[in-house]
Specification:
3 domains; globular; 37% helix; alpha+beta; 481 residues; nine-stranded mixed sheet; binds 8-demethyl-8-dimethylamino-flavin-adenine-dinucleotide; FAD/NAD(P)-binding domain; D-Amino Acid Oxidase, Chain A, domain 2
């Protein structure tokens, strides 16, 4: 058996693993990435495209953002279409200057792979039967490569192997708690070499279902339509897709949309998932290995980058300052942010989709909430309003992170709530009831078990959509139904 030793062994060469590897490499921390697929396969996956400011800042820190700054499209806002009209949400105004950058996950992955190769940091692709052992004391990663068994001994293992990976699955069941909701619909996506219909993304709510007009570049568009879970991409011709998309967007978009042959078509399920904690001795989970959000809010890759930022800093602190304080805080800090993004996606997804089991009351309630959102940007809601709302609510640090971390959509969430409820209701809605900060909350009978005081989920406002704790432990309180 071939054996070697590194400081950090990373399982998975998706964006989380590659970015962590790059940040550690720049800090002089010896690491190796073990990936089960080929580099070409990893690059062939069409996924995220919207990067928040904090992600771009981290990519700058990692020294891999040169092409992103040249080719990425900066968006100062997004658009929402419902009731035949379109509304703009102005990120820059609402967040006091923040924007998002549209840059495909594939391109980001390519940049990270290239820099890793140029700098001679090792990645082992097509590693078979990857397994992790001894993470309570002496961590080891084992796998087969070209028919031979290999073993990597290390100080720490980073589990960056996505939702279906083996690192989370290797943790003893009694040590982990998971929460999951699979939404009763999916997204059928089409990529085409056509100019985008709009300079900004358009999120469309329509009685036939949700649609999203997105893009990867000025000449490449990515469109999605809500579909049933058992839909097959092969049963949709390109023409069927374009016809359905045109029915769901606003009249102007339907008229100006340029169509063309698809480069790729696929169906993605929508899932919310969180595993707690994210540290098990010397094994740390990051990115989709620990959590999934539905793609509606474009949060998955951004959350993955945020985990990696926390973990890289903690590891640098460990090796440079001989302090394990950052590692000890990693899980709590990451989960605090994750639950806020989960909460946002859990609110935004049903707001924009057609829910199969909806009764007329649910449809009315959703239209009412959408009308707040529609009024909110046209009514102003400049940064000063948000800031004064923050002061009015005596915003604690964690809720401040909510605004910074979730950036624009956090503001959208906040403004739509503030538009329609009193300050104390808003405080409760965003989970920052002062008495509750720092203590687990059980609004309407639910505790998420999160280590962050703002982590409780309210059941209000998303009728018919509930979170189910997958595994119950003595600390988890199930939902009251
Ligand atoms: P990944 O990308 O799944 O990478 C995990 C890697 O681990 C490898 N692996 C293993 N390696 C070794 N041994 C094993 N046993 C292994 N098992 C798995 C896999 O081959 C893979 O290479 O997880 P990571 O790195 O945490 O990155 C997460 C992001 O990919 C994900 O959150 C985003 O794509 C989510 N997402 C979006 N996020 C955004 O921030 N903005 C968006 O606009 C956005 N749009 C999307 C999305 C996800 C989508 N789908 C398909 C789920 C749109 C869609 C449609």
């Amino acid at each position: 058996m071939e054996t070697r030793r590194v400081q950090v062994a990373i399982v998975g060469a998706g964006p989380s693993g590659l970015l962590l590897g790059q940040l550690l490499h720049r800090a002089g921390i010896d690491n190796v990435i073990v990936e089960q697929r080929s580099a070409e396969y990893v690059l062939g996956r069409i996924r995220a495209g919207v990067l928040e400011q904090t992600t771009v800042d981290l990519l700058d820190e990692a020294g891999v953002a040169a092409r992103l700054h040249r080719e990425g499209l900066i968006h100062e806002g997004t658009q929402m279409a419902f009731g035949g009209k379109r509304y703009q949400i102005n990120f820059r105004k609402l967040t006091g200057g923040k924007t998002v950058t549209v840059y495909g996950q594939t391109e980001l992955t390519r940049d990270l792979m290239e820099v890793r190769q140029e700098e001679g940091a090792p990645t082992i692709y097509e590693a078979l039967d990857v397994s992790v052992h001894g993470f309570d004391a002496n961590p080891v990663v084992r796998f087969h490569k070209d028919g031979a068994e290999q073993e990597i001994g290390c100080d720490f293992i980073a589990g960056c192997d996505g939702y279906h990976g083996i690192t989370r699955a290797s943790v003893p069941a009694a040590a982990i708690r998971t929460f999951e909701r699979v939404y009763p619909f999916g997204w059928l996506g089409l990529l085409s070499e056509t100019p985008p219909v709009s300079e900004e993304l358009i999120y469309c709510n329509h009685p036939r279902g949700f649609a999203l007009c997105s893009m990867r570049s000025p000449t490449r568009s990515r469109y999605y339509v809500q579909c049933s879970l058992d839909e097959k991409a092969e049963s949709w011709t390109d023409q069927m897709f374009w016809d359905e998309l045109r029915r769901r967007v606003d009249p102007e978009a339907a008229e100006t949309m340029v169509t063309g042959p698809s480069i790729e078509k696929s169906v993605a399920p929508l899932r919310s998932f969180v595993a707690e904690p994210m540290r098990f001795g010397k094994l740390f989970l990051a990115g989709d290995a620990a959590h999934i959000v539905p793609p509606t809010g474009a949060k998955g890759l951004n959350l993955a980058a945020s985990d990696v930022g926390f973990l890289a800093r903690a590891l640098v602190e460990f090796y440079r300052d001989k302090s394990s304080a950052g590692l000890d805080r990693y899980s709590g800090r990451a989960l605090c942010r994750i639950w806020k993004a989960e909460r946002f996606s859990w609110w935004f997804t049903p707001l924009m989709h057609r829910i199969p089991e909806d009764v007329p009351r649910d449809v009315r309630a959703r239209s009412s909430q959408l009308s707040w959102v529609g009024r909110s940007p046209s009514g102003g809601w400049p940064a000063s309003t948000i800031l004064s709302a923050r002061r009015q609510l005596s915003w604690p640090v964690e809720a401040g992170e909510f605004i910074d971390g979730l950036s624009v959509f956090g503001c959208l969430f906040l403004s739509s709530f503030l538009n329609g409820c009193s300050a104390s209701e808003a405080r409760q809605a965003v989970g920052i009831d002062r008495g509750a900060v720092g203590k687990p909350r059980t609004p309407q009978g639910l505790s998420t078990g999160s280590s962050c005081g703002a982590g409780g989920l309210s059941t209000a406002g998303a009728s018919g959509l509930r979170w189910w704790p997958v595994s119950l432990s003595s600390k988890t309180v199930a939902l009251q139904t």
